[in-house]
Sequence to fold (556 residues):
Amino acid sequence: MIAVESLTKRYGETPVVDNVSLTVERHSITVIVGTSGSGKSTLLRMINRLVEPTSGRVLIDGRDTRGEPAYLLRRRIGYVIQGYGLFPHRTVAENIATVPRLLGWDVRRIEARITELLEVFSLDPALYAGALPHELSGGQQQRVGVARALAAEPLVLLMDEPFGALDPIIRAKAQDDLLDIQRRFGMTVVLVTHDMDEAFRLGNQVAVMSGGRLLQYDRPAVLLTRPADPFVSRLTGLADRAMRLLSLVTAGEAVLPGASDGPAVASTTSLREVLSELLWCGADSARVVDANGVVRGRLTVAAILARGRP
Amino acid sequence: MPRAATVLRLAALVLLVAFLVTPQSFAPLFAPLTQYGAPPIYDQGNLLTLALAQLGTVCLAAAASSIVAVGLGILVTRPSGAQFLPLSRTLVNIGQTFPPVAVLAVAVPLVGFGEKPTLIALFAYGLLPIFENTLVGLKTCPPAVLEAASGMGMNARQRLLSVELPLATPLILEGIRLSLVINVGTATIGSTVAAKGLGEVIIAGLLSSNTAFILQGGLLTGLMAILLYDGLAGLERRLLRPVTLD
Fold:
């Protein structure tokens, strides 16, 4: 658990982060979203002390982060930045080995970890372990960046606009990969983005920041249905808030008992996509099928529409 | 083109070695440049010994310049040393702008004749290219890479040794190479204060109006400088991993 307590950062008189408090639950993904200059990156960088707060404190699992030298703290916290910052003079394997080496792991353990991570990120170790960063595509560099951050099995992963440089298709894949990896390793993720879609797609909790202040910190659905501030509703978008709400619920969660002769949809599909499919086919209801092909029930247009209201 | 360059390089090397080992075989070539039956090839010392002595002096001075210039470059790019940047730059610039001949004149009364004043002059003269290249190399490390290094938990020393210096190495080596080449030529003036080197041949030629001496001293020095620069560049390409920064 990460507890941010009345954190403030001032440069001169201007507060960049102004008295922000929030709690990040263990094993969850929290997304900090805001426009540029909102202080979201500074807030993130105060968690691993790349920026030292003017006042306030951060506790990770109850321990004050100022209790040890900053560089030792950072070895226990994964960190991914926009542009990835891979070491251009080191191979992919050496890049991934960075923190384990700093921690003094033995060679065999490091090698095993490199191979494991490359396989998790679908990079063939035989092809990529010895490659230099400039030989990789943008998407591959991004994956190596995340693999490097996870190398020493950190309990916390901080990500600053990690998908900002990717094209939309690769970005969507990278976001799915992050969700898979978070489920697999169970680390606590704090991610900064200016992209509201990304925030809604990834975040168990979303923090909205503006002008250094935390405007609202809640589940994505609450941000849509009960925005605490006009700025929050502007950021989440008024025009398509109903569709956004639908995109937060999967067919499996909303499934109703009954049979349907409409199109089959997977239980992991979002209601937004189910509705779109029904509109496209001109059907009134869809069959919800789980991963094994077993029919779980049905979803009607009326039931879906009911979910799109606060 | 690369083949032509290789042939030229090999030719220059063969010429240099042949001249240093068997200078007398080039006598017919230089004879037309002499008057009144003066010797066409320098005969008051062994050319090979002189060339090696000059090379030794230059390398020693370059080693000292490199240590000081790279050290200064590192110091002034640290947050704690940034205030020394203007001062260091001024000192290094003075080293380059103060004529080496004047340095010799000042140094001789202090340290006596021979190698020492030459070493001092070359040391001061060679600082600038190494210092400036070190600065550029360290300052142009991509910010994202430095941020990642700190974010991973490297302390300042680890970041310098395993990220900043390796990334700056190609530029630093280029500075050292440049400094070496400039000083191979400059070192010839050391002979005015009795340092051993090919300058001796040139000065002997000036004193006795023997164009052949002047020409062979200059030719050998030039060949040495070119081959040294080329050889070091080749060595660098072989030893360093190709790094692309974007």
